[in-house]
């Protein structure tokens, strides 16, 4: 089954949904890349959390990857001054996540424009997938604005559709109710709705990513307990030390991300107690301020755990020796990058 794609732009390859929705993939087609061959490539995070330029990927031949610093040799670039594409890719290689929400912030900070602003939005398919997550944020808004009326509206899209109602008077009445409740002007309501939907869609996206990998993390750490029963592994001090560090790092990072979600929930609940556009902006700023940290944490955990799960889909897969080899050669590598993610930002203050 082929991935859904958006239309081709500027002779560049169409943007695939899997790339747009990923934590660890950055399609270079959305950036001002000068080298034609690179417009078809992707910047990806590998299992060691290194950023690699993926020139091709094929089920039969695998993934053709280059380190960013190998690009001048590959494309015969002069080193002094460095090629503009090299300068750009060096900056992007330092980012900890390539999800659309982290990218919006990071690209803006670096003054990097995109060829298509819609490229920094989740795909329609992912939006539909996140509907259940979004309900917890759309339902309270509907209740706050309309009370028990119009409860047949069960989605954010349904709420927005009210203001596109062919009955102009009905739409205007609803706009006035919302504007009054939020203490903003009528003209500001559409922008409020757009921002409201986007910030809580980001939170839904990150929650979904965590929900996907938490069971894998649980099985991964449980397999460590099984491995320690192996005589060979129980006498390998270096391996045991690495496993202990991995356990601590993964458990801490997962707990930290979950803690941030709980803090966001408390802040969101406080917002409902006295809803206004100003209170929403405070929550929006809080959540957006942690996009790069949460995105980086989830990207690191996701890349490593999915690589593990592909090789060892069950606790009985592979055997202790093969698991130990993968732990030392791949999982252990890049742990310092995971630790840096948490060091960059303190956890949000407990609003309680």
How would you describe what is shown here?
With about 350 residues, the chain is mainly alpha-helical. The protein folds into 3 domains: about 15-120, no CATH class; about 125-190, no CATH class; about 205-345, no CATH class. It has 15 helices and 4 strands. It has helices at about 15-20, 70-75, 85-95, 100-110, 125-130, 130-145, 155-160, 170-180, 190-225, 230-235, 235-275, 275-290, 290-310, 320-330, 335-345; strands at about 25, 40-45, 50-60, 60-65. Strands 1-2-3-4 form a 4-stranded antiparallel sheet. The relative contact order is 0.11.
Give me a quick take on this structure:
The protein has about 350 residues and is mainly alpha-helical. It contains 15 helices and four strands.
Q: What order do the helices and strands come in, and which of them pair?
A:
Layout: H1 17-20, E1 25-27, E2 42-45, E3 51-58, E4 62-67, H2 71-75, H3 84-93, H4 100-109, H5 124-129, H6 131-146, H7 156-162, H8 168-182, H9 189-227, H10 231-234, H11 237-273, H12 277-288, H13 291-311, H14 320-331, H15 335-344
Antiparallel strand pairs: 1-2, 2-3, 3-4
Helix pairs in contact: 4-13, 6-9, 9-11, 9-12, 9-13, 11-12, 11-13, 11-14, 11-15, 13-15
Tell me the Rg in angstroms. 23 Å
Largest sheet: 4 strands, antiparallel
Indicate the percent of residues in helices.
Answer: 55-70%
What is the count of DSSP helices, taking H or I runs of 4+ residues? 15
- Uncertain stretches of 5 or more adjacent residues: 5-9
The run of helices and strands is HEEEEHHHHHHHHHHHHHH
Q: Kindly name the structural category.
A: mainly alpha
């Amino acid at each position: 089954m082929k991935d859904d794609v958006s239309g081709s732009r500027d002779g560049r390859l169409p943007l695939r949904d899997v790339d747009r929705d990923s934590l660890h993939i950055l399609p270079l087609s959305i950036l001002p890349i000068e080298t034609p061959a690179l417009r078809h490539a992707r910047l990806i995070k590998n299992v060691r959390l290194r950023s690699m330029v993926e020139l091709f990927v094929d089920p039969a031949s695998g993934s053709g990857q280059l380190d960013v610093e190998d690009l001048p040799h590959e494309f015969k670039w002069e080193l002094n001054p460095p090629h503009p594409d090299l300068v750009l890719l060096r900056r992007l290689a330092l980012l900890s996540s390539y999800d659309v929400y982290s990218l919006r912030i990071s690209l803006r900070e670096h003054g990097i424009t995109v060829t298509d602003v819609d490229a920094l939005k989740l795909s329609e398919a992912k939006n539909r997938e996140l509907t259940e997550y979004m309900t917890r944020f759309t339902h309270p808004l509907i209740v706050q604005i309309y009370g028990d009326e119009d409860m047949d509206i069960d989605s954010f899209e349904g709420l927005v559709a009210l203001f596109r109602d062919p009955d102009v008077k009905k739409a205007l009445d609803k706009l006035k109710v919302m504007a009054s409740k939020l203490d903003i002007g009528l003209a500001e309501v559409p922008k409020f709705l757009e921002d409201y939907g986007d910030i809580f869609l980001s939170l839904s996206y990150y929650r979904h990513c965590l929900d996907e990998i938490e069971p894998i993390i649980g099985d991964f750490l449980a397999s460590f307990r099984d491995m320690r029963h192996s005589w060979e592994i129980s006498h390998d001090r270096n391996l045991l030390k690495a496993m202990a560090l991995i356990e601590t790092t993964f458990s801490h990072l997962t707990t930290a991300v979950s803690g941030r979600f709980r803090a966001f929930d408390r802040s969101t609940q406080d917002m409902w107690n006295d809803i206004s556009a100003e209170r929403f902006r405070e929550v929006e700023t809080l959540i957006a301020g942690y996009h790069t940290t949460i995105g980086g944490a989830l990207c690191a955990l996701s890349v490593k755990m999915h690589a593990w799960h592909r090789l060892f889909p069950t606790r009985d897969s592979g055997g202790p020796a093969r698991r130990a080899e993968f732990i030392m050669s791949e999982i252990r590598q890049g742990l310092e990058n995971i630790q840096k993610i948490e060091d960059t930002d303190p956890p949000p203050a407990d609003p309680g």
